[in-house]
Specification:
This protein is α+β, with helices and mostly antiparallel strands. It is built from 5 helices and 4 strands; from the N terminus they run ααβββαβαα. The chain is globular.
Length: about 110
């Protein structure tokens, strides 16, 4: 599985990590992050600094054809009052336009 958020926290280039790892990945899961390797905060996709249009275009360039799924970190789902339906709707609202802007059709 490929998850850019861990590489982003370490300052590793998105394009290089995708080019290297996507051909070996069975699926991709996405979440956002804030901080750095010493101060990690995971976020819902679209709530951080990840450019998902670039991310999806770069995945497509590797001919990756697997699933892209949301990861909700324990830092999020472990909070009091966490609402999984609201989180799913929030993630869809953030990611659907990225797929469209990247020119990627979803099945």
């Amino acid at each position: 599985m490929y998850d850019y958020s861990h590489f982003e926290l370490r300052g590793i280039d998105m394009a290089e990590s995708i080019k290297t790892l996507a051909p070996h990945s069975v699926f991709v899961h996405v979440k956002d992050s804030r901080g750095d390797a010493d101060n990690v905060q995971f976020l819902l996709p679209g709530d951080g600094r990840t450019n998902y249009v670039a991310y999806l275009k770069q995945l497509a360039a590797t001919r990756y054809r697997g699933d892209v799924v949301i990861e909700v970190s324990g830092q999020i789902h472990g909070r009091a009052g966490y609402d999984p339906v609201a989180a799913a709707k929030h993630c869809y609202a953030k990611l659907a336009p990225a797929f469209e802007n990247a020119g990627i059709r979803r099945s």
